[in-house]
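Why does residue order matter? Because the sequence determines the fold. Keep that principle in mind as you read this record.
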Amino acid sequence: MSFRITNSIMVNNYVRNMQNNQQRMNRLQNQIETTNRLIKPSEDPVGAMKVLEINAKISDIEVYLTNLDNAEAWLVESETAVSKINEYVKRMYELAVNLSNETKTPEDRMAAANEIRGLRDELVSTANMTMTDKYLFGSHNVAQAPFHPADPSDPNSEMLFNGISLIGAVDMTDVDAELQNKIQYKVGFKIDMNISISGIELMGIGDDANIHHVMNDFYKACMDPDSTWETISPFMGKFQSIQTNILGVQAEIGGRMNRITAMQDTYSIDMINYKDLKSKVEEIDMAETITYFSMAEAVYRAALSVGSRVIQPTLMDFLR
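Structure:
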């Protein structure tokens, strides 16, 4: 059974097909201008969902990399401070070796005491170093100097750490509580990295292990006119033990920095891979899309040519 094709049907089909051609050209033009294949999520729901997942991964990696950069900066500053303290201790050991000599006089020891006092005071300043107004070795206490004198009126006063004495009868309950207070950065999914070095770990606990206390005793011994080389010689062993502890702290910082570097490298590779995957899902093949656009344009021009024949001449065309 055949149907009668009227001119109206032909014109309507022509207009509908022209609109489809124009829509296709418009879509291809938008893709070329934006380089995006997914102009609307409805065009490819699976691809759009994949892009959202990739964007979430990239966002997480950017946060982790920022936190790793901040953690690295903190550890670099901490390492600088610990290295300075190590130099102070090395100098103390050298002085102890030099003064543990029968030929040294009380005047020699008193002359060295001035340098010892200066290094002792520098020790406190270094232990109270800050980064962006935050104290490096204060554990949870980043707003106030963690080390302060027990007696501010005494220039030779012992130093307290966040109000806790680290010499004599040390309250280990308070010490353990302080050691549990850590500065942590989120550097991965369920991965928190401790970047803090507690002032307790740095300064040491006990009369023979606390750096400031041993320096103070060394200073007092050199200032005492009744001191002898036998009084000074025990400080050699004390400073050696202290330096061993300081080197251990440096090694711990170095280990954390190596871990940060490894994670930064991993995340940088992941970032490249995710962006490449996103590009494959989201972006167009420019050469291919331009080819499709040229084909659509050729079809459109052909349709215009056909349309001039489909639309019947009117009376006005014959009256010209």
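Strands lie at 130-131, 134-135, 147-149, 159-161, 164-165, 184-188, 191-194.
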